Amino acid sequence: MRLAVFGAGGVGGYFGGRLAQAGESVVFVARGAHLQAMRREGLRVDSPAGDFHVMPVEATDDPSSAGRVDGVLVCVKAWQVGEAASVMLPVLGPETFVVPLQNGVEAADQLAAVVGAERVLGGLCRVVT
Q: Any idea what the CATH number is for the domain that residue 56 is in?
């Protein structure tokens, strides 16, 4: 399975990193200093469930360079969901699913308005990162 993780902070870094550890193909969509650090040093996560390091890590600030994916985890801040939805269109294939992992109840509707309600699955996570 090929997955894109939009937002590689605490939530996206943890779940995307765990999926990469499990052998899934994961591309992180990040930006700025965090993107550069991931490219240089990989992804390091300190967790009560066990620290881990993913190296090398596939990371980009240009979703169109990632190719099509089977699923998208949306792990940006709630106020960034609309922007993430508008830039994720190039990674969506005909059956790609999109899972928002934000606090609040508006993310799924915001995503559905851009990518289509048939793609959006409900998401909920609880993690200490």
A: 3.40.50.720
